[in-house]
Design a protein that fits this description.
Blueprint: H1 2-27, H2 29-33, H3 36-64, H4 70-100, H5 108-114, E1 125-128, E2 131-134, E3 147-153, E4 156-161, E5 171-173, E6 189-191, E7 193-198, H6 212-221, H7 228-233, H8 237-251, H9 256-281, H10 283-297, H11 300-310, H12 312-338, H13 342-359, H14 362-376, H15 381-394, H16 397-413, H17 420-436, H18 443-454, H19 462-499, H20 505-509
Antiparallel strand pairs: 1-2, 1-6, 2-5, 3-4, 3-7
The structure holds aspartic acid (ASP).
Aspartic acid binds at residues 360-362, 396, 399, 437, 439-444, 473, 476-477, 480.
Length: 515
Amino acid sequence: MKNQQKSISLLIPILVGIGVGILLGGLFPIVGSSLEFIGELFINGLLMLVIPLVMTSMIISISSLGDIRQIGGIGGKTIFFYTITTGIAVLIGLIMVNIIQPGVANTDAARIAQRGGQILTDVPYSIDQDIITLQGSTFQRAYDERYNVILLDQNEIHGAIKSGKQPSDNSLRISEWTNLEKDTVTPNQSGSGLKVDLAVAATVKDKDERSIFDVLKEVVVGLLPRNLFQAMVENQVLPLIIFSLLFGAILTTLGERGEGVIIMFSAINEVIMKMIHLILLAAPVGIGALIASRLGLAGGFTGFATEFSSLSKYAASVIIGLFIHGALVLPIILQVFGKRNPWHYARKTASALTTAFSTSSSSATLPLTMECAIQGNHISPRTASFVLPLGATINMDGTALYEAVGAVFIAQVYGIELGVGQMVVIFLTATLAAIGAAGIPEAGLVTMVIVLRAVNIPIEGISLILVIDWFLDRCRTTINVWGDSIVAGVIDTLERPKSHRVITKEEEEVGVVFD
Ligand code: ASP
C-alpha cells in the first residue's frame, strides 16, 4: 500500500520534471545540453539493475511455479499476445503510410522518383568561386555524412564531388569536399541539374549485408550465451532469461539444499526492488534532464521545428499510428482479455512510460516497468518476472509499426511502387525486425535494413529519416513498453485461476474487475 502511494505521488513531480525539461531545453538549448550528465546518471542507475533484476526475478519466478511444465502455458500465451499485438501495430503502420503517403510530395525528395531513384535534387545551380548555390531549393538536412554530387548541364557532366561534409542549407563550399575533381568545376558557371546520390548512412553501413535469415539465426544462436558474463556485460537480456529459466527449474529439483539458494535469490530480488524505489525518487529530475539535454542538442524549439518540418508528414504517419495503437488497440485488449480498467492501468504505468520516452530504451526502463506492474497494477511478481523481461527484448509494437512506415516512406520517396505481395513481405519482415531489435536507442533504425532489403528498397534511403529518428525513437519506445505492460496485465488475468489468487482490496480500487 505504501509503495502504491509512492507511485501515485510521483506522477505529478514527473510531469513537472518533463515540463521544466521541455522549457529549459527548448528556450535555453545550451543550458539544456549541459544537463546531459544528470540524465546519464539516471540511465546508469537503471541499467545497473537490469541484469541482477532479470536474473533474480526469473529464477524465483520459475522456482515458484512449482511445476516446470507451467512455463509452457504462460510462455505460449505470452508469445501469442506479443505476436498478435505486434501484427496489429504493423498493420496500423501500413494503413497510415498508405493513407497519408508522406513520401509522395511535391518536394525535392519527390524528384528522386522521376529520376530512377538516384537523384535527390535536380535544381538550377550556380558556382561562384568556391561556393555552389542551389537556387530555389534547399538540401534536406536529413543527410548523414557522405554523398556524391554531380553537376550536370543538359546531361553533360561538368563536375563531380565526392564524399564531403553535410552542406549548409543552400550551398556547398567546394574546398570543404574531399576527392574533388576540381578541374572539372569551372567558377562562375551555372547549370540546370545537380545530382546528389545519398550514401549509406554510417549507422547501418556494416549491416547492409544482413538478410532476414541472418537476423533470425542471430536471435536463435544468441539464445544460449557462449559466455554468461559477456552476455551480462553487453546487457543481452534474452540469453540471460534462458539461463535463469534453466537454473531456476533445476534448483527446484534439489530439495532442501535448493531452497536455501532460492531464499537467497528472493532476498537479492527484494534488495533490487528497493533500489528501484530509490532510483524512482530521482525520476522527475532524471527524466527532465534527459528531455532538456536532447532538446538542447537539437537546437531548442527552433532547431527541433526545422528538423521536424522537413519530415513532418512522415513523422505524423508514425505518431498517429502509434497513438491509435497505444490509445485504442492496446487498451481494448487490456479491457477485453485482461479485464482491467485501461485508464487506471495507464496512470499506474506512467513513470515507466515517461522513462521510456526520455531514455529511448526498453531495457533501461525494465526495472520501472516491473515496479509499475507489480506495485502499481498488482500484477503477480511471477507473471511480471516472466512476461516483462521477455517483452523488453522481443515485443516491440512501436518499433514494428515504425519500421513499416519507414520502409514504405522510403519506397515512396524513391518512386518504387509496392504491390500487395511486397506489403505482405514488409508486414512479415517488420514484425521480425522488431523482434530482432535490441531494447536500446535507435536499434530499430538499424534493423530496418532487413525490411528494406527484403523488398529491394535502397538502404541509402535510411539517410532520409535519420534526422528525426531520435524523436520518433522516444515515441516508439514508449509504445513498446506500454505494449509489454498491457500483455503482462492480460497474462496475469488469464493465469490467475491457476495461481488461485483472489482479488485484493487494492486491486479492486484500481479497477481490476475479474469475473
Ligand atoms: N529504442 C527502442 C527500444 O528500446 C528500440 C528501437 O530503436 O526501436 O525499445
